[in-house]
Amino acid sequence: MKCFNFIATIIAINSSFFNVVTAQTNINLEQVNKKTKPVTLPRFIDDIEIKLTANKSVINTITETTPIITTPIIITSNNNIASLFIEKCSALQFKYAILMNRTVETITNNKLFSFIDEWWGTPYKYGGTDKVGIDCSAFSGKLLATIYNVSIPRTAIEQYQLCEKIAVEDLLEGDLVFFNTNGSISHVGVYLGNHQFVHSSVQAGVTISSMLDGYYNKKFIGCGRLLH
Question: In 47-204, where does DSSP find H-type helix?
Answer without folding.
Answer: 78-86, 91-100, 110-119, 136-148, 156-162
